[in-house]
Specification:
The structure holds two protein chains of two kinds.
Chain A (H helix, E strand, L loop, with lengths): L1 H20 L7 H12 L2 H9 L5 H31 L9
Helix pairs in contact in A: 2-4, 3-4
Chain B lengths: L2 H22 L3 H23 L8 H20 L5 H23 L7 H28 L13 H21 L6 H18 L7 H22 L3 H24 L4 H6 L20 H10 L2 E6 L1 H5 L3 H13 L3 E6 L9 H8 L7 E3 H4 L8 E5 L8 H4 L18 E6 L19 E5 L2 H12 L1
Parallel strand pairs in B: 1-2, 1-4, 2-3, 4-5, 5-6
Chain lengths: 96, 453
Amino acid sequence: MEIVFLIFILVLSVFLGFELISKVPATLHTPLMSGANAISGITLAGAFLSAGMVDSEMGKYLGTAAVAFATVNVVGGYMVTDRMLGMFKSKKAGGK
Amino acid sequence: MNIELLANLSYIVSAALFIFGLKMLGSPATARRGNLFSSLGMLIAVVAGLTAEGIVSYEYIVGGMVLGAIIGGLAARLVAMTSMPEMVALFNGSGGAASLLVGWSTLYGGGIETFTAITILLAILIGGLTFTGSLIAYAKLAEVMNSAAIVFKGQRIVNSLLLVGIVYAAYMFCLDPQPDSQWLYITLGLALLLGVMAVIPIGGADMPVVISLLNSYSGIAACAAGFAINNNILIVAGSLVGASGIILTNIMCKAMNRSLANVLFSGFGAVKQGKAIEGEVKPISVEDAYYLFEAASNVCFVPGYGMAVAQAQHVVKELGEILEANGCEVSYAIHPVAGRMPGHMNVLLAEADVPYEQLVEMDDINPRIENVDIAVVIGANDVVNPSAREDEDSPIYGMPIINVDQARTVFVLKRSMASGFSGVDNPLFFGENTRMLFGDAKESIAGVISEFG
């Protein structure tokens, strides 16, 4: 039952994803991609469990590496997306 | 209330914030706030993850996070906007690596059922090929390695064997899922190799497709990792990213009039030669160009990546402002593959302070291109080549283009009469209403500006 439940979530979010992303204008496709990079850093939430385990040295090292990689995505992704989006200015705002 | 329930409730909140964030990305006016919402969602998910049961030691976690934050933060701050494709390629790679590692380390938890073993393997497989594939894509984009397609005889046979090997090793592993199983290492090794083999036959011009696709893979890998560790938020976030990458891949393929299979499996060889073009090229001087600009009431710039290479976007924007002050309507028509990744050109123009209202998509400008007095083509070639519309023998036939040839006048800024990236002749240059402004684009535009002076 657990599996069916997870697949249920998967299918719904895939549809939602298509619905949402197809509304993003071409102008913002690059920030969309870097923002997606940041969101895929969600693996971080999973990596904690592995890195925090004590019973296996190897598992801990792998988990720690996963934490590092995922944090690169989260921090780097959100920061660079914010930097880019900050450049998009409206005419009305007078360039600021 | 127990901690696990609380964590799952917070995941719902962060999933909602991700969704809101993506929704607000629907307009440049709200996009930045959307990104903040999304990052808030991430913060909540991370905090919830940290409280999960079973975490005993935090030293390693903190160490990994500090290291990752320093690398990510520095990269985000220092990267030049022209290098965004390389950066996104690397981020795709690190996303893939993270999912691979999460999947792998889960094995050490013990008590693995078959279904979990399969999902772990998928995370390792997709994560692994995303990782090495992205590194190759990065190397090609950064021109660390030759960006041309690498093709050799029997390539497909080698790749097919590789796939069969992966399936076999994966099957053997699932029979007895142990962390020290030799089949695990074989699968991992083959997956890493597959990533390399999949990207080397793809030429530099097709990289926008590849990074979009790898972007999607990094999401799918996160999704697989979510199944492996039974975590909803990984599945939701991963599939959002996966869907996003697939949509972008599709848009890029359409913009180049190629199928995904064609991009992935065959290096772009301009085999067919279109009609030879004859005609007279009509050059124009900076001074004459100025007179036309001065009289124009609707000017549309059509930039290509050549403009960014020449760093001409700032002078172009300056000219745009002068024209506006002169009572002229100014817009920038951007072809989907104008930059080196989806939306890249828009970012480069936004960096030069072009207001986003003036950035128009190909499908918006084409129906009203006849009202444009002057279309200024800067550093673009194939995306404005009328052969794509008219000449069935042309290798780019069928590719959607910006129909600048239908504007009242076309200025083409060009160094000399060489053909474009795909090596295809461009009849636009010989058009009745086309005027060639030869020379360095930046200097030519600066020349026009000083005439306005």
